[in-house]
Request: fold
Amino acid sequence: MKKLKALLQASSLIQDLGFDTLNSLLYWRHNLRGNKIRKNYFVRASKLPPIILLQGFMGTRGVLLPLENHLRASGRDVISIDFGFFNVSDIKGSAQLLSYKIERLLDRFSGIHNIQKIQIIGHSMGGLIGLYYVKKLGGHRIVDKLITLGAPFNGTWTSLLGLFPFGVFSKGIWQMLPTSDFLKKLQKKTSEVYETEVISISAKYDSICPPKTCHLPGATNEILNVGHASLLMDKKVFDAIDRHLQEKESSARVVPIRK
Reply:
Protein backbone atom coordinates (compact mmCIF):
# COMPACT_ATOMS: atom_id res chain seq x y z
CA MET A 1 0.00 0.00 0.00
CA LYS A 2 2.82 2.39 0.93
CA LYS A 3 4.67 1.51 -2.28
CA LEU A 4 1.54 2.18 -4.33
CA LYS A 5 1.06 5.55 -2.60
CA ALA A 6 4.70 6.46 -3.25
CA LEU A 7 4.35 5.49 -6.92
CA LEU A 8 1.23 7.61 -7.26
CA GLN A 9 2.98 10.58 -5.66
CA ALA A 10 6.00 10.13 -7.92
CA SER A 11 3.73 9.85 -10.96
CA SER A 12 1.89 13.02 -9.94
CA LEU A 13 5.18 14.88 -9.46
CA ILE A 14 6.47 13.80 -12.88
CA GLN A 15 3.18 14.79 -14.47
CA ASP A 16 3.20 18.22 -12.84
CA LEU A 17 6.84 18.87 -13.64
CA GLY A 18 6.32 17.75 -17.22
CA PHE A 19 3.31 19.98 -17.59
CA ASP A 20 5.31 22.89 -16.14
CA THR A 21 7.96 22.29 -18.80
CA LEU A 22 5.31 22.95 -21.43
CA ASN A 23 4.09 26.00 -19.54
CA SER A 24 7.67 27.27 -19.26
CA LEU A 25 7.94 27.17 -23.04
CA LEU A 26 4.60 28.97 -23.35
CA TYR A 27 5.77 31.48 -20.74
CA TRP A 28 8.83 32.49 -22.74
CA ARG A 29 6.97 32.41 -26.01
CA HIS A 30 4.53 35.00 -24.66
CA ASN A 31 7.24 36.90 -22.81
CA LEU A 32 9.13 37.47 -26.06
CA ARG A 33 6.10 39.31 -27.42
CA GLY A 34 7.45 42.25 -25.43
CA ASN A 35 5.51 45.31 -24.31
CA LYS A 36 3.82 46.14 -27.62
CA ILE A 37 0.71 44.10 -26.83
CA ARG A 38 -2.42 46.01 -27.78
CA LYS A 39 -4.06 47.90 -24.93
CA ASN A 40 -7.81 47.25 -24.76
CA TYR A 41 -8.64 49.39 -21.76
CA PHE A 42 -12.29 49.90 -20.84
CA VAL A 43 -13.69 48.56 -24.11
CA ARG A 44 -16.93 47.66 -22.32
CA ALA A 45 -18.92 48.95 -19.38
CA SER A 46 -18.29 46.83 -16.28
CA LYS A 47 -19.59 47.23 -12.75
CA LEU A 48 -16.62 45.26 -11.41
CA PRO A 49 -13.33 46.93 -10.40
CA PRO A 50 -10.69 47.05 -13.15
CA ILE A 51 -7.73 44.70 -12.69
CA ILE A 52 -4.10 45.81 -12.93
CA LEU A 53 -1.63 43.07 -13.95
CA LEU A 54 2.04 43.26 -12.91
CA GLN A 55 4.72 41.02 -14.45
CA GLY A 56 7.63 39.54 -12.53
CA PHE A 57 11.40 39.77 -12.89
CA MET A 58 12.46 39.80 -16.57
CA GLY A 59 8.79 39.84 -17.53
CA THR A 60 7.07 41.88 -20.24
CA ARG A 61 3.41 42.67 -20.83
CA GLY A 62 3.39 39.79 -23.31
CA VAL A 63 3.76 37.15 -20.61
CA LEU A 64 0.54 38.39 -19.00
CA LEU A 65 -1.50 37.90 -22.16
CA PRO A 66 -3.06 34.46 -21.35
CA LEU A 67 -4.28 35.69 -17.95
CA GLU A 68 -5.34 39.02 -19.45
CA ASN A 69 -7.41 37.25 -22.14
CA HIS A 70 -8.98 34.95 -19.55
CA LEU A 71 -10.02 37.83 -17.29
CA ARG A 72 -11.29 39.92 -20.19
CA ALA A 73 -13.37 36.98 -21.46
CA SER A 74 -15.10 36.92 -18.06
CA GLY A 75 -16.13 40.55 -18.52
CA ARG A 76 -13.37 42.31 -16.59
CA ASP A 77 -11.50 45.47 -17.55
CA VAL A 78 -7.80 44.52 -17.52
CA ILE A 79 -4.74 46.75 -17.65
CA SER A 80 -1.13 45.52 -17.80
CA ILE A 81 1.65 47.91 -16.84
CA ASP A 82 4.72 48.55 -18.99
CA PHE A 83 7.80 48.54 -16.75
CA GLY A 84 10.20 48.91 -19.66
CA PHE A 85 12.19 46.32 -21.60
CA PHE A 86 11.95 43.38 -19.19
CA ASN A 87 11.22 44.09 -15.54
CA VAL A 88 14.58 44.29 -13.75
CA SER A 89 14.33 47.72 -12.12
CA ASP A 90 14.23 48.93 -8.53
CA ILE A 91 11.03 47.59 -6.92
CA LYS A 92 10.36 50.88 -5.13
CA GLY A 93 10.81 52.78 -8.38
CA SER A 94 8.43 50.39 -10.16
CA ALA A 95 5.85 50.87 -7.39
CA GLN A 96 6.13 54.64 -7.80
CA LEU A 97 5.63 54.23 -11.55
CA LEU A 98 2.60 52.04 -10.80
CA SER A 99 1.21 54.75 -8.52
CA TYR A 100 1.66 57.38 -11.22
CA LYS A 101 0.00 55.25 -13.91
CA ILE A 102 -2.94 54.41 -11.66
CA GLU A 103 -3.44 58.11 -10.93
CA ARG A 104 -3.46 58.84 -14.67
CA LEU A 105 -5.96 56.04 -15.32
CA LEU A 106 -8.25 57.31 -12.59
CA ASP A 107 -8.03 60.88 -13.88
CA ARG A 108 -8.88 59.70 -17.38
CA PHE A 109 -11.54 57.05 -16.78
CA SER A 110 -13.00 57.32 -13.25
CA GLY A 111 -15.60 59.92 -14.25
CA ILE A 112 -16.75 57.90 -17.25
CA HIS A 113 -16.69 54.44 -15.68
CA ASN A 114 -17.32 55.40 -12.03
CA ILE A 115 -14.23 53.60 -10.72
CA GLN A 116 -14.33 53.33 -6.92
CA LYS A 117 -11.77 50.56 -6.40
CA ILE A 118 -9.18 48.62 -8.39
CA GLN A 119 -7.71 45.14 -7.98
CA ILE A 120 -4.09 44.09 -8.59
CA ILE A 121 -2.64 40.73 -9.62
CA GLY A 122 1.18 40.52 -9.48
CA HIS A 123 3.40 37.65 -10.57
CA SER A 124 6.64 37.01 -8.64
CA MET A 125 8.45 40.36 -8.23
CA GLY A 126 5.24 42.00 -9.46
CA GLY A 127 3.62 40.89 -6.20
CA LEU A 128 6.29 42.76 -4.23
CA ILE A 129 5.68 45.85 -6.36
CA GLY A 130 1.97 45.60 -5.58
CA LEU A 131 2.51 45.13 -1.83
CA TYR A 132 4.93 48.06 -1.66
CA TYR A 133 2.39 50.26 -3.46
CA VAL A 134 -0.35 49.21 -1.01
CA LYS A 135 1.71 49.51 2.18
CA LYS A 136 4.02 52.42 1.43
CA LEU A 137 2.45 54.59 -1.27
CA GLY A 138 -1.16 54.83 -0.13
CA GLY A 139 -2.46 52.14 -2.46
CA HIS A 140 -4.62 50.70 0.35
CA ARG A 141 -7.07 53.55 -0.26
CA ILE A 142 -7.92 52.37 -3.79
CA VAL A 143 -6.88 48.68 -3.99
CA ASP A 144 -9.73 46.35 -3.04
CA LYS A 145 -7.79 43.09 -3.52
CA LEU A 146 -4.14 42.24 -4.13
CA ILE A 147 -3.57 38.73 -5.51
CA THR A 148 0.06 37.65 -5.75
CA LEU A 149 1.36 34.66 -7.73
CA GLY A 150 4.63 33.23 -6.46
CA ALA A 151 5.72 36.49 -4.80
CA PRO A 152 8.80 36.03 -2.53
CA PHE A 153 7.70 38.13 0.45
CA ASN A 154 10.36 36.46 2.59
CA GLY A 155 13.03 36.70 -0.10
CA THR A 156 14.53 34.00 -2.30
CA TRP A 157 18.16 32.96 -2.63
CA THR A 158 17.56 31.91 -6.23
CA SER A 159 17.72 35.59 -7.14
CA LEU A 160 21.50 35.11 -6.81
CA LEU A 161 21.34 33.30 -10.16
CA GLY A 162 20.64 36.64 -11.83
CA LEU A 163 23.57 38.47 -10.27
CA PHE A 164 26.05 37.59 -13.01
CA PRO A 165 24.06 38.87 -16.01
CA PHE A 166 21.96 41.53 -14.25
CA GLY A 167 23.38 42.29 -10.79
CA VAL A 168 25.31 45.36 -11.91
CA PHE A 169 22.27 47.28 -13.12
CA SER A 170 19.31 45.44 -11.54
CA LYS A 171 18.52 46.65 -8.04
CA GLY A 172 15.49 44.35 -7.99
CA ILE A 173 17.69 41.24 -7.71
CA TRP A 174 19.35 42.51 -4.54
CA GLN A 175 15.99 43.55 -3.10
CA MET A 176 14.62 40.00 -3.41
CA LEU A 177 17.38 38.44 -1.29
CA PRO A 178 16.11 37.28 2.15
CA THR A 179 18.57 39.62 3.91
CA SER A 180 17.78 42.74 1.87
CA ASP A 181 17.08 46.09 3.51
CA PHE A 182 14.13 46.46 1.16
CA LEU A 183 12.33 43.42 2.60
CA LYS A 184 13.20 44.42 6.17
CA LYS A 185 11.59 47.83 5.65
CA LEU A 186 8.61 46.29 3.86
CA GLN A 187 8.09 44.02 6.87
CA LYS A 188 7.87 46.92 9.33
CA LYS A 189 4.49 47.87 10.72
CA THR A 190 3.15 51.26 9.75
CA SER A 191 0.58 53.42 11.52
CA GLU A 192 -2.08 53.22 8.82
CA VAL A 193 -5.10 50.92 8.86
CA TYR A 194 -5.19 48.87 5.70
CA GLU A 195 -8.34 47.84 3.89
CA THR A 196 -6.79 45.78 1.10
CA GLU A 197 -7.49 42.05 1.03
CA VAL A 198 -4.34 40.09 0.21
CA ILE A 199 -4.23 36.60 -1.35
CA SER A 200 -0.87 34.90 -1.83
CA ILE A 201 -0.98 31.98 -4.29
CA SER A 202 2.20 29.91 -4.50
CA ALA A 203 3.26 26.89 -6.56
CA LYS A 204 4.11 23.58 -4.88
CA TYR A 205 6.79 22.74 -7.47
CA ASP A 206 8.25 26.24 -7.70
CA SER A 207 12.05 26.09 -7.40
CA ILE A 208 12.42 29.87 -7.89
CA CYS A 209 9.98 31.07 -5.24
CA PRO A 210 9.01 28.04 -3.11
CA PRO A 211 5.80 28.29 -1.05
CA LYS A 212 7.66 29.11 2.19
CA THR A 213 9.10 32.23 0.57
CA CYS A 214 5.59 33.32 -0.45
CA HIS A 215 3.84 32.83 2.88
CA LEU A 216 2.41 36.12 4.15
CA PRO A 217 1.01 36.14 7.71
CA GLY A 218 -2.46 37.67 7.82
CA ALA A 219 -3.11 37.02 4.14
CA THR A 220 -5.00 34.15 2.53
CA ASN A 221 -2.22 31.74 1.55
CA GLU A 222 -2.93 29.02 -1.01
CA ILE A 223 -0.61 26.43 -2.58
CA LEU A 224 -1.42 24.93 -5.98
CA ASN A 225 0.11 21.86 -7.65
CA VAL A 226 1.94 23.77 -10.39
CA GLY A 227 5.35 25.34 -11.05
CA HIS A 228 6.53 28.95 -11.28
CA ALA A 229 5.79 29.50 -14.98
CA SER A 230 2.41 27.78 -14.66
CA LEU A 231 1.23 30.54 -12.33
CA LEU A 232 0.59 32.61 -15.47
CA MET A 233 -0.40 29.77 -17.81
CA ASP A 234 -2.37 27.08 -15.97
CA LYS A 235 -6.16 26.86 -15.83
CA LYS A 236 -5.99 25.69 -12.19
CA VAL A 237 -4.44 29.04 -11.29
CA PHE A 238 -6.96 30.99 -13.39
CA ASP A 239 -9.81 29.15 -11.64
CA ALA A 240 -8.31 29.99 -8.22
CA ILE A 241 -7.98 33.65 -9.21
CA ASP A 242 -11.62 33.70 -10.36
CA ARG A 243 -12.71 32.19 -7.06
CA HIS A 244 -10.85 34.78 -4.99
CA LEU A 245 -12.07 37.65 -7.15
CA GLN A 246 -15.68 36.51 -6.69
CA GLU A 247 -15.45 36.23 -2.90
CA LYS A 248 -17.20 39.16 -1.26
CA GLU A 249 -15.60 39.44 2.16
CA SER A 250 -12.51 38.13 3.92
CA SER A 251 -10.50 38.88 7.05
CA ALA A 252 -7.23 38.68 5.09
CA ARG A 253 -5.87 42.21 5.31
CA VAL A 254 -2.48 43.82 4.85
CA VAL A 255 -0.46 43.30 8.02
CA PRO A 256 3.25 43.36 8.85
CA ILE A 257 4.99 40.37 7.31
CA ARG A 258 6.62 39.60 10.63
CA LYS A 259 5.46 40.78 14.03
